[in-house]
Amino acid sequence: MTTRVAIVGGTGKLGGVIREVVETGEGYEVAAVLGSRSDLAELDGADLVIDASTPAVSIDVVRAAIERGINVLVGTSGWSNERIALVRPLVDASGTGAVFIPNFSLGSVVGSALAAAAAPFFPSIEIVEAHRETKVDSPSGTAVRTAELIAAAREKVGPVQSPHVDQRARGQQVASVPIHSLRRPGVVARQETVLSGAGESLTIVHDTIDPATAYAPGIRIALAAARDARGVIVGLDSFIDIGVRTRPVRSEAPIADDDVSGQVASVTSA
């Protein structure tokens, strides 16, 4: 059975990678490619909607898909827990599925999971993320997701220590974690999570070097899961077992040896 896929934002950078994966994937067909200004009635007839649009348009895309009884896979940035809560009742009432993926990179997912695993042991945690200057939102969805995972992991020990956050230069707090966003040419995506305690620090760094090769494996995993998903599911870590669990894993998929190409992750301590 072929899954007919409508891609909103299919001509953008991420949308182009997603379109290539769909077109070359067995059992999928690109039924429609929409821009951010397209009539959402073009979603009619699709079996799955993939949203790679913009933060301002994304919520309308999700609502339009769910109202039509179509599952939706969201790769657009800007979906915090608070924003997802706005559409959760609609998803639950419809019996459909909405899968939100802040980052399709397997290395990024591992980095965020490692940060969450280490979070209860360090009182001070901050995130520095960098993207190309054309990224319209900040902080990034990946940084927001990482901060939310850190907060969940620290539920028993309390929020991180963040002195002087009343000063704008101290970054934006998300779930008590200060996030500092850089937007500059010459970078694709980079995130550093710096965890500090008395006399030591731990830095977890992830770099995306080539989005096409870095995102494709995660897109394939998310595609397979989104077709039959029910309810709201957040994060690629919901579908893979990376050995560091921040919550129960919904399902598992094999990962090839080359599935982490195009990205670099490192962990350093001092």
Radius of gyration: 18 Å
Low-confidence sequence ranges: 246-261
Biggest sheet strand line-up = 2-1-3-4-5-11
Mean pLDDT: 91
What is the CATH superfamily label of the largest domain? NAD(P)-binding Rossmann-like Domain
The total tally of domains equals: 2
Given the C-alpha coordinates, what overall shape results? globular
Kindly identify the CATH topology of the largest domain: Rossmann fold
CATH C-level label of the largest domain: Alpha Beta
Helix fraction?
A: 25-40%
* Structural class computed from helices and strand pairing: alpha/beta
Q: Count of DSSP E strands?
A: 12
Beta-strand share of residues? 25-35%
Report on this structure:
It is a single chain. The strands form 2 sheets. This protein has a 6-stranded parallel β-sheet with strand order 2-1-3-4-5-11, sandwiched between helices. It has a 6-stranded mixed β-sheet with strand order 7-8-6-9-10-12. It has 270 residues and is of the alpha/beta class. 30% of the residues lie in helices and 27% in strands. About 6% of the residues have low confidence. The longest helix is centred in the last third of the chain and has 17 residues. It folds into 2 domains: 130 residues, 3-Layer(aba) Sandwich (Rossmann fold); 103 residues, Dihydrodipicolinate Reductase, domain 2 (2-Layer Sandwich), CATH 3.30.360. Helix 1 packs across helix 6, helix 2 packs parallel to helix 3 and helix 4 packs parallel to helix 5. The chain is built from 6 helices and 12 strands.
